[in-house]
Amino acid sequence: MLRREGWRHGQNKTRRVYRELGLQLRNKSPKRRVKAKLRDDRRPATRSNETWAMDFVHDQLATGRKLRVLTIVDIFSRFSPALTPRFTFRGTDVVEILEGVCNEVGFPATIRVDQGTEFVSRDLDVWAYQRGVTLDFSRPGKPTDNAFIEAFNGRFREECLNAHWFLTLADAEEKVETWRRYYNEERPHGAIGNKPPILLQNHDGATSPPP
């Protein structure tokens, strides 16, 4: 964080200054790295790519092997730019998926997430800083702080995950992507006037991060 602001002092000098000023030092190994808290200035989204919401949904293959799906939805248009199933996720995987998606549909101003390990990772933090994206974290134990993704996940589970057996990861990818396209392009959404989300998706928006 200091290097971002132009400071070039090393860690030892920084810690020495902290001690001399009587400031409280953080533990070397905190149990959890909390990056942000729920902002008080949340407003309804007024355009596509203004605010996204992101989360994970858990499922399994027919063999019993555990599966996770990264879900992303645009709060204004209800358009889902990505539904990605994998066996495991790391922060670098989330960054890879976001970078690919944003190069196609544009970069959001804000992404609402919970405080899961992948979302508080340094990799996602650096990516968001470099791309000018704000990560808006939910409060611990408050899923209603990210109600849009919770509602989307419920529909995704009911209409896709509960309706299919996934034989392999490739089978899951195919069926999940088929449902995503149906949800975006055909399925009417009551919250946006019974239109499919793709009609509200702004395809003329920025497709590169702000300078």
From TrEMBL:
Top-level lineage group: Bacteria
GO biological process: DNA integration
InterPro entries xrefs: Integrase_cat-core, RNaseH-like_sf, RNaseH_sf, Transpos_IS3
UniProt signal peptide: none
NCBIfam families given in the database record: transpos_IS3
Record-given protein name: Integrase catalytic subunit
Domain Integrase catalytic: start-end pairs: 40-204
GO MF entry, a single one: nucleic acid binding
Matching Pfam families: rve_3
